[in-house]
Amino acid sequence: MQKVRVPINSFQYGEVSDSLVMRTDTAIYAASAQRVENLLVMAEGSVKKRTGLRHAYTYNLTYSSSDPVKSYLASFVYDDNEQYIVSIEQSQLRFFRIVDADTISLVDTVTTDVNSTGLPFDQDYIKEYTTAQYGDVMFICHPLIAPRVITRTSLTNFDVSTFTFDSRPDDKVIFQPYYPFQSQGVTLDPSATSGNGITLVTSSAYWDITGSVAGGAGSNSNDFLSSKHIGVTVKYHDTEIEIVSVQSATSAKGNVVGTTQVRLAVVNPLRTVSGTTTVEVTHLGHGFAGGETIVISDASATGGINTTNINGSRVVATIIDENTYTYPAGGTSSSSADGGGNVKITTHAPTVGWSEQVFSAKRGFPAAVVFHENRLVFGGTIAQPDTIWMSKIGNFFNFDVGKAEDINAISLTAATGEVNEIRYLVSNRDLQVFTASNELYVPTYLNQAITPANAQIRKQTPFGAEFVQPASIDGATIFVQYGGHSIREYLYTDTEDAYTSVSVSTLASHLIDSPLSMAVVHGGFGLSDSIAFVTRTNGEAAMFSSNRAEKRASWSRVTTSGRFAGAIAVHNRIFVNVYDEYNKLQLCEFTGDIGLDMYIYKAIPSNNLVDVSDLYANTQIVDVLATDGTTVSHIGSFTTNSAVKIDISAHAGNGYTHVYVGKKFTAKLITNAIDVNAGNGAVSGDVRGISSVVLDVKNTRSIKVNGSSFSSLAGFNGKKEIRVLGYSRDPQVTIEQNDPLPFQVNGLIAELII
After folding, report:
1. Residue 425: helix, strand or coil by DSSP?
2. Helix or strand or coil: residue 127?
3. Rounded Cα distance, 349 and 236, in Å
4. Which of 21, 59, 259, 542 has its CA 20 to 30 A from that of 203?
């Protein structure tokens, strides 16, 4: 029999999968553990009991296994002093103001439903919402509803409205993106180019007729009033026509929005040819055919042709390309020259040069939204899942591509050879695009702004993203890989001159199956490392501390008496939704050194009966920490009485003024099987025992080591030997604490008997 002292100096890799059980030869095995529960892995390699969960608000929402996700949390930060949490629910939005370190207050509630300007939340889609916030405004997107705009109007008031594009004051033209959804060669022929109730005829089936036929007195029985095309705007050259009814697959009626015209979106669009009557017109996407009649007005003289010979009714002669055609003028030009001035063309001949608004109930709405380089960026609709749209610089409500000037709006499609369903957009080093199948980006060149001339989408990695909002951490972006079994770090590297997507969950994949939400804080929980907190659809949670310099993600599991249902970071604070043990949804914050979950802070009344009815019910068991303003003591477990009060009169003489009342949780560390090289190889699998454990702890009270208790009235610091005895083929050290007290382990030495 031989005794060997085996040191475990660090737990810096946190909890690892049991797939490493035989990798005793690795440095990771020596500096990790089988279970790290409710413990923070510190940069130095020690583990410390996590902070408690302070209660902030009780929702009128209860858990159901069929629809567990009832609230989507979003951060709304105006500045360091004005910070909010937005809870997006099926029937309402709640706005919580973070007043200070101790106070979170519900300041406004906006009721919503399908028929209002609010958010029609279907329970199944809540987790698929995306948000982006800038100043006093937040945008909310989902592919099945029009984007909504949340506007903070005061410290305690918010308005919700449907996103509306800007329009041109003179002719009401709407600055929104358009796209030709029709099949190639399908023409549109309006009966007129002004007025209401004009007829729009297509040369092949186009209009949506999926609705029911309207009937009754005073109605047109042939109008498909529930068609998804109702309310949609089509663009006939520069004329915008709103569809008001659909008669058939080839016929609809509409109202002209503004002045009927085509503005040539180029400088000097007319060119005369010397010695001829030919006028060449640069007209982007004109859609005309030879022989069509057009009317030109407001053209200035050019090339020596009298103005009256340029303007007027003209016939298209030659189609040079999709952007250029010619017509004969009323006189011969004496020279070749460019000109045109303010040119308008009015016509209503059949043309293939027409398009439909991009965002609508028919084509879908943006799935993703972000602010990037002073542009509002939308991404992915049902009809165009792999396209992004960028607003005009400095004008978030103008998406008119117009002239190809640097500040103008941009429409960009990921032409990667496959359809990439955009799910999230992230503004980081570049504009990052996360799709269901790939990770893309829109590069920024030499610190220059993205413009219509240089904008492009590049494919990088092939993993795809789940419906979990990505988060930035230490300059990288972490996202949940499609399928929900891995969390990856999307990061640009100078060595590869490209983005890589490296898994940060490989060692602890068992902790992140089916993630629901992620929240990241930088230097939170009192640690120097960045912390990512991950909730899962099964109600469990995990977190990891990140240290890229050491290529380390240190994972631990987080448990509570209830179920986690979402998380959000607001600066360096993490807020979570938790279903308590009675299935009531609670908003809580990880904060302080209080070892209780869903705790409340109360002043002790003169009768020593503390009222906890604002959170708890009668006959509930709670734990209580009491303070005199200087020290905090655990005074025990209590059962609430019929008046939902706890009686602490037994401690009345100790000078306590306030109590923390909540639910205790267990912190647990289980080492990997302790192995040693006995000279003839490792002894993995051999029967061996642990005779004693020497712990190096800091500010630690009331723990158990392999079932043996170690208690201290004050926080113990230093080394403590605990005698244990037990034999196993996989001997382990289990350290646990069930009381709401401090707990930190820096390392240990196990005396192994082999």
Report:
1. strand
2. helix
3. 10
4. 259
Determine the Cα–Cα distance for residues 194 and 720; give it in Å rounded to an integer: 90
Across 143-196, the runs of DSSP E, i.e. the strands, are 145-154, 157-162, 178-179, 188-190
From CA 229, how far away is CA 242, in angstroms rounded? 9
Task: Tell me which DSSP letter residue 308 carries.
Answer: H
Between CA 349 and CA 632 the distance in angstroms is 83
The confidence band for 290, taking pLDDT boundaries of 50, 70 and 90, is confident
Q: Which of 444, 431, 440, 443 is nearest to 378 (CA)?
A: 431
Q: Does pLDDT of 371 surpass 70? A: yes
Query: What is the token pair recorded at 557?
Result: 């599991």
Question: Among 584, 647, 590, 656, which Cα is nearest to 616's?
Answer: 584
Q: Of 126, 128, 153, 148, which Cα lies nearest the Cα of 138?
A: 148
Instruction: List, for residues 100-128, the tens digit of each pLDDT value.
Output: 988 999 999 988 654 444 455 556 678 88
Q: What pLDDT was estimated at residue 216? A: 35
Domain positions in the chain are: 3-32+669-753, 178-260, 262-356, 596-664
Cα(366)–Cα(748) distance, rounded to whole angstroms?
A: 54
- Asked whether the whole model's pTM tops 0.85, one would answer yes
CB atoms within 10 A of CB 747: 19
User: Of 319, 313, 310, whose CA–CA distance to 340 is shortest?
Assistant: 310
CA nearest 566: which of 86, 65, 52, 69?
69
- 516: closest CA among 468, 553, 554? 468
Query: For residue 272, what pLDDT is reported?
Result: 86
Tokens 């439909």 belong to which residue?
Answer: 356
Backbone angles phi, psi at 205, to 5 degrees: -55, 130
Q: Which of 344, 325, 337, 340 is nearest to 276 (CA)?
A: 337
Q: From residue 618, give the alpha-carbon distance in Å to each of 115, 640, 642, 643.
A: 41, 5, 5, 7
**Inter-residue contact 596 to 590 (CB < 8 Å):** no
Residue pair 149/138 in contact (Cβ under 8 Å)? The answer is yes
Distance CA 501, CA 480 (A): 11
Q: Can you tell me whether residue 661 is helix, strand or coil? A: strand
What is the tens place of the pLDDT at every residue in 145-202? 889 999 999 999 999 989 999 987 776 778 999 999 999 889 999 998 889 999 999 9
Residue 224 DSSP SS3: coil
CA 245, CA 222: separation in Å to the nearest integer? 9
At residue 506, φ and ψ (nearest 5 deg) are: -55, -45
Topology of domain 262-356, CATH: Elongation Factor Tu (Ef-tu); domain 3 (2.40.30)
| Amino acid 226: pLDDT | 66
The tokens describing 141, both together, are 């997107």
Structure tokens at 80: 């360091």
Q: Which helix or strand (DSSP H or E) is residue 27 part of? A: helix 27-30
Report how far Cα 281 is from the mean position of its chain's Cα atoms: 46
SS3 assignment, position 112: coil
Cβ(713)–Cβ(606) under 8 Å?
no
3-class SS at 525? helix
Distance CA 295, CA 315 (A): 8
- The Cα angle at residue 695 between residues 691 and 700, in degrees rounded to 5: 135
Question: Residues 213, 222: contact at Cβ < 8 Å?
Answer: yes
Question: What is the rounded average pLDDT of the residues 307-326?
Answer: 88
Nearest to 364 by CA among 114, 130, 163, 144: 144
More confident residue, 557 or 120: 557
Counting DSSP H helices and E strands in the chain, the numbers are: 2, 62
| Beta-strand runs (E) in 298-438 | 312-315, 318-321, 324-328, 337-339, 344-346, 354-357, 368-372, 375-379, 387-390, 410-413, 422-427, 431-435
Q: What phi and psi, each to the nearest 5 degrees, are found at residue 308? A: -65, -25
